[in-house]
Amino acid sequence: MTDTDQNPDVRQRLAEAIRMLERAELMDHSGHASARRDGGSFYINSGASVRSALTAADIVAVDFDGVLLKGTAKPPLEFYIHAEIYRVRPDVSAIVHTHPRWSTALTMTGAAYRPVYAQGVLLGDIPVMDSPLSVNTKAMGERLASTLAGAQAVLLKSHGAVIVGSDVIEAFALATYLEENARRQHLALQIGEPYVFSDAEREACRTNLWSRPLFAKAWEYYRSKLV
Fold it and tell me: Of 14, 58, 67, 166, which residue has the fewest beta carbons closer than 10 angstroms?
């Protein structure tokens, strides 16, 4: 992507993604989303920004050490989440850090995320970082990136979730899928043991549902709720 054409669109898309995540109660007064830039840097919402009223003007650019490259506001203290994942995952171009209710509750009880919802299958096996502390140092960022490894998401015990994607729309859609799966899993556990998709069913879901048009459909569904 280049500064002259794509970046304005990326900043706007990030702002929309964060507002949608807040409206869906996956993000609160904190949380952040980013998009990779060329040259070892990324766009991210400023730490002080109001998530429910975010605009493209609240998106700043920083390098992997947190040095401000564009904008005037400071990035979130947890920018290390993004920097350290980008360092080791060249396939990742967007990252979302949310504070979702249901998937966080699973980590508080030690219950593993299980695929009980078709779109939830797309997250695969989700590791858990066994710490509720803020990821506000390089060492913590490295630990999180190591825990994530090659997965699509990582849960932070009693804290939240980090989801990665090839672009903002994909990362956003996967974040909503993760939380809906966790919500259904939690509700089913109140009645009994939930049905977990078989290996064959998971493969069918990955084949049929890992789809750019379907990610965009989820995006537009949540986007329509902003107006």
Answer: 67
Confidence check: pLDDT of 104 > 60:
yes
Q: List, in order, residues 6 or more apart from 27 with CB less than 8 Å away.
A: 18, 21, 51, 98, 99
Domain enclosing residue 164, as ranges: 6-226
Residue 95 lies in a domain: yes
What is the mean pLDDT of the segment spanning 40-69?
Answer: 96
What burial letters (b/e) apply to 95-113, b meaning 16+ CB within 10 Å? bbbbbbebbbebbeeeeeb
Q: Which two tokens stand for residue 140?
A: 């913590």
Q: Under a CB-based contact definition with an 8 Å cutoff, are residues 17 and 33 in contact?
A: yes
In angstroms, the Cα distances linking 130 to 113, 150, 214 are 14, 18, 32
Is residue 199 situated within a structural domain? Answer: yes
Cβ contact 118:209 at 8 Å: yes
Q: Answer positive or negative: Cα dihedral of 95, 169, 161, 76.
A: positive
CATH code (residue 182): 3.40.225.10
Domain count, the chain: 1
Residue given tokens 């990252």 in the structure block:
95
Single pTM value for the model: 0.94
CA distance 148 to 125: 10
Asked if residue 15 is part of any domain, the answer here is yes
Asked, for residue 1, whether it belongs to a domain, the answer is no
